[in-house]
Amino acid sequence: MPLLSIDDLHVALGGHCILENIDLHIDRGEVVTLIGPNGSGKSTLLRVIIGAVQPARGQLVREQGLTIGYVPQRLAIDPTLPLTVARFLNLPRRHSSRVLRQALEQAGVPGLMQHQVTDLSGGQLQRILLARALLEKPDLLLLDEATQGLDYRGTADFYRQIEAVRRELGCAVLMVSHELHVVMRTSDRVVCLNRHICCQGTPERVVASPAYQGLFGAGTGDALALYRHGHDHDHFTAASAPSTADASHQGANVNA
Amino acid sequence: MLDDFLVRAALAGFGVALAAAPLGCFVVWRRMAYFGDATAHAAILGVALSLLLSTSVFAGVLVVSLLMATLVSLLSGRGYAMDTLLGVMAHSALAFGLVAVSFLSGVRVDLMAYLFGDILAVAPQDLALIAVGVLLVVGLMGWRWSALLTATLDADLARASGIDPKREQLVLTLSLAVVVAVAVKVVGALLIAALLIIPAAAARPFCRTPEAMVLLAAVVGAASTTGGLQAAYWFDTPTGPTIVCLAAVLFVLSSFVALLKRKLARPAASSDALR
Lengths: 256, 275
Hints:
The complex is a heterodimer.
Chain A (H helix, E strand, L loop, with lengths): L3 E10 L2 E11 L4 E5 L6 H9 L6 E6 L5 E4 L13 H5 L7 H10 L15 H14 L4 E5 L7 H18 L2 E5 L3 H7 L2 E6 L1 E6 L1 H6 L1 H7 L4 H8 L5 H7 L2 H13 L1
Parallel strand pairs in A: 3-7, 3-8, 5-6, 6-7
Antiparallel strand pairs in A: 1-2, 1-4, 8-9
Chain B lengths: L4 H25 L3 H20 L4 H20 L5 H21 L8 H6 L7 H30 L1 H6 L4 H23 L4 H12 L6 H26 L3 H36 L1
Helix pairs in contact in B: 1-6, 1-8, 1-9, 1-10, 2-3, 2-4, 2-8, 2-9, 3-8, 6-8, 9-10, 9-11, 10-11
């Protein structure tokens, strides 16, 4: 039985149809990536899975006792709320300080334990959010554009950690991402969403499909070719990756 | 000991400060200040209704505040312009309450006592009610603490951890109504929100964790109520407003110290950068 099965799901918000005819199944240990243009319902789909949005129709079945780790797109903490990183990681359940230290080290941000969460940079916060999600030892990790605000190095670290986590915990990962090049490299399956599921399958199949090329342009296919054999030469591939992947990368390089 | 009205007043103020601390922090963190106002102002309507039906004032205030708080939290999820709506509800509840009280020609009502509190008139049975209310609120907050805090941070983060943010909102709503009912006697309907917000705001600059802020807010609240009681005795001023004045003075002091701390910290940091 899959961890999560969604059958014929429809979602409407404020009278507008956001998602329709969604069929999606996620198995243990699988890395699935949702791609799609802005407003295609990717975040909404994640929010349906955590129970924040009620579907208008259709079925969503979670495995009994499924633990979900969720990393939101961003977290706005009111400045009136004092909160150290350690306290944040202990929400909603407490962990020993040894476990916390380990989690921060794994996230690549050791020594932030006593910092205020509101003082963190976007990238640091993103890493802390991932660390917090992993503390619960999730069966299913949901990442909503989780690498937003991370520099190039940070993004690479982030995905490396995701892969390590999948190996160690055996959890499934469902992520929303715009970084097509990384998506193609790390995913077992890519789901291309534009209100309905346009196409899904292995990265190679999706990139080759007409639906994908209609949405993202045929040029992005090159990103896959480059990244398939360019794992450890990120800078080289970053410079030569065309179109969408290129645009996001240039920005990241400037930040770094 | 409880025979002394000053001791009873001090205990009542102490209790209310204790219950107001955790709730006040949530009111500040969740930006619910107006929400507190609306609920507190509805208390006057509760007073009028309970006098009309000759039931206990405490019960009347509790029920009407609960209705108001529930109404407000129901509306808040539906995309109304909340500050406008709350402004409308807070002040119309107050106005309707005042008008309703004026109809009670048969009973002599000391309206001032309900608007500004009458802490010196706290009777032993009032004290018992206050104790029950305080225990209820503090117990509820302690029990739901982690879930409340997670839901306050982010609703979706809470949901992913299996916490229902709506249920936690309900806990806050219920606690708010109880605190209002308990505090009407102490500071009056007009100033309850002040007792919720000011101690929490005064505590903020000196705290690094939510728990520390609640503790310090309780200390500030308790200092304000007991100190205000003393000051009102010295200067022969109305007790409720004096308590709030003292809390406000503590807030100003706290802001000043926080500002000083920042100013002192900044030159050091910039000279480090130069070096």
